[in-house]
Amino acid sequence: MLSGVGMTDLVVGWALWNDLVHQIAARTRNYDDAEDLLHTAYLKLVHYRTQTPVENVAAFLVRTAINANIDNRRHSRVFRNVAITQQLEDTAPLQDEVVGTRIRLIRTKAGLDKLPARTREIVLMHKLDGLKYNEIAERLGISASAVEKHMAKALLFLTQWTEGW
Questions:
Q1: Which residue of 117, 133, 138, 140 pairs with 147 in a disulfide if CB–CB is 3.0 to 4.6 A?
Q2: pTM to 2 decimals?
Q3: H or E element in which residue 139 lies
């Protein structure tokens, strides 16, 4: 049925084009990309026919589309593997960074213990509980300005306390 199809038949024959799309979709089980695969095959046919005559154009188009589908799947598998490999890269901190961070944390905890109780409470409410200054002020019954002063005093002290660590 399709074996004697000439080049001009493909340009004009939409019924033939649709038949080829259905053949490609059935053979590749790739119904979404069948027409794109046929288009790719057609472009290869145009280039190929400049150098070599093609006796069975329809068979050439179907086979070339199937091969393009295989190439696309291989290509996407390679990129998927590359993406998985990139996700598996070790992003954990180095041991010396972990040790340094632990030492700074111990030093910061010791510094917090040296703060006045009210100032320590305000810092922890802000940093650990995520409360805003006006929320802290409302809970403690003090002004937002007082909270700001406690925070400024605490941060200045802790910066100096942990300096060099």
A1: 133
A2: 0.44
A3: helix 133-140
**CA–CA separation, 123 vs 112, rounded Å?**
9
Q: Are 143 and 137 in contact (CB under 8 A)?
A: yes
Contact predicate 24/37, CB 8 Å: yes
Among residues 30, 52, 17, the alpha carbon closest in space to that of 2 is found at 17
Say what angle helices 95-114 and 117-127 make with each other, to 10 degrees: 140
CB atoms inside a 10 Å sphere around CB 64: 20
Is residue 7 a contact partner of residue 50, using CB atoms and an 8 Å limit? no
Helix and strand numbers, DSSP H then E, in the chain: 8, 0
Q: pLDDT digit string (tens) for 15-65?
A: 888 888 998 899 888 888 888 888 888 888 888 888 888 888 889 889 999
Return the CA Rg of the chain: 35
